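Cross-check.
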Amino acid sequence: MYGIGAIGVWKLVPYPMDPEENGAPPRSLREKLSGFDYGGIILATGGLTIFTFAITQANSLTNGWRSPTIISLLVLGVAFITAFCFYETYIPKNPLMPMSIWKYPGVALCMLISSCGWMAFNGITTYYCPLYFLKVVRVSPILATAYLTPYSIFGISVNIFAAFTLHRIPGRYLLIAGNLGYLGTSLIWALIPLGSNYWALPFPSMFLGVIGSDLAYNVGNIHILRSVSSKLQSSAAGMFNTNLQLSITVGLAASSAVVSTIVQNQDSASPELLLKGYHAGAWLAVGMSAVGLLMTPFLRIGLQGIDEKLPHDEV
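Predicted model, tokenized:
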């Protein structure tokens, strides 16, 4: 579906900066390919792949994080990522990740706040939520799917709300509301008792979580785009979304390590022991969301979605 959509956009959406329309001769395919940052692609892909593999596979090995394989891969992944940052700073003419983006006010802080919330919600609570229904409550997969339906309904509703309020309510307040949602859903899953009524705790936790993810994502994404010059917007958007995907991986790996210290064998564990482990993972989400909430007031975001000149277009 993504491929079909991409082809449709490529064929149907006009390019506003077509070289032929501006009087410049069209570039050949070879010229376009020669402008790619191949070194950055290799270093970024290699580093992120190795790092992600190491942190996600650590809990599956006998020695866990002390395994020589995991330690070696972590060191290698961090080395690749460090080399990528230095490479992007000094070598390519068209870097994959322009390091100047980090100099714009609020970009780094917005990335960090979004990362904390994404680790807590998408990396932890939304992962253990279906496991709670399947392994603790022990309902059928069909019923568990039905229990998770409010996520999509709330998601549509919150995005509609965001579309009508981003230009009316300052982004700082919406971002605070989003991070309060992250904290609220994390606290519910950290305190939920065995045999809790679905409508009493799991249902409102989904509403709070979606408030966090959809409000915070929209506000953060638009803020990143409006903070940089128009030439860097595509790179900034790519960095923002890559940061979120990495945050999910880190949050899931960290919570899995915490849960594994309490529940060594989740396949044969009792519902009581599983819930105790899930509580521990949820408390990690509480800490992450609390850190993001504490940083939010320091990020200056006003009204968004208003047609006006970007503040850094002259850069």
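The domain at 98-315 is CATH 1.20.1250.20 (Growth Hormone; Chain: A;). Residues 107-136 form the longest helix (30 residues). Passed to J.P. for a second look.
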